[in-house]
Amino acid sequence: MRPLLSIQDLSKSFVLHNVGRTVTGCSHISFDIMPGEFVGITGRSGSGKSTILRCIYRTNLPESGSIVYDSAAFGTIDLCTCDERRVLYLRKNEIGYVSQFLDALPRQSAYDIVLKSALETFGVEEAEHAREQTEAMLRHFNIDENHWELFPRTFSGGEKLRLNIAAAMIKRPRLLLLDEPTASLDNASKLKVRELIEQLKGQGTTMLGIFHDLEFMEGLCDKEFNMQKGMMA
């Protein structure tokens, strides 16, 4: 069996033009993720963990190295060098990303944010099923039904994060990237996230997650890597 994702000698730095400095994001990172695995990355804030995820998702363009992904649509593809059209396709259909921050259109309701993801997964021809799944996901994360038609700018940080996770997980992606998905959640909400992660893992979703909450990761991860100063320790 070949890896679903193989990262080799990945490096990324950032130039701070206002102070004339270059900051290392990550340096010479190499590891593989097999299909269906849950891999966790730990380390202090600023150690470069999120940089790796953003390079995989291509919100950061890597400087060197390769990120070889075994795509269902395109076969083996290097995410560092493939064209933007394929990157956008993979984000829509194969690779999910949960960040700590909600990225949504200004006048889009909480319900519509999750429904949009559901329709991308199930198709317009299954709109009724998409709505059923949207409502089930919103209820799972305890988003008050009275809030479904509200714009999430009025939500608390924890509510926004739960909404973000709901929109990503409803797509059941082949590869799911999790950047501190429990950062601002209470214990009850963390358990909701864990329950869905376990469900996705049981369905074969491959996951790469960043966590500070080591207790949350216990029993979930197949492999764990620790980062220090941009490098694997």
TrEMBL record:
Ranges for domain ABC transporter come to: 5-233
Instruction: Indicate what this protein is called per its UniProt record.
Output: Phosphonate C-P lyase system protein PhnL
Name the predominant localization: membrane
What molecular functions are annotated in GO for this chain?
ATP binding; ATP hydrolysis activity; lyase activity
**InterPro entries membership:** AAA+_ATPase (IPR003593), ABC_transporter-like_ATP-bd (IPR003439), MetN_ABC_transporter-like (IPR050086), P-loop_NTPase (IPR027417)
Biological source species: Slackia faecicanis
* Highest taxon above the source species: Bacteria
Q: Record keywords: rRNA processing included?
A: no
| Pfam families on file | ABC_tran (PF00005)
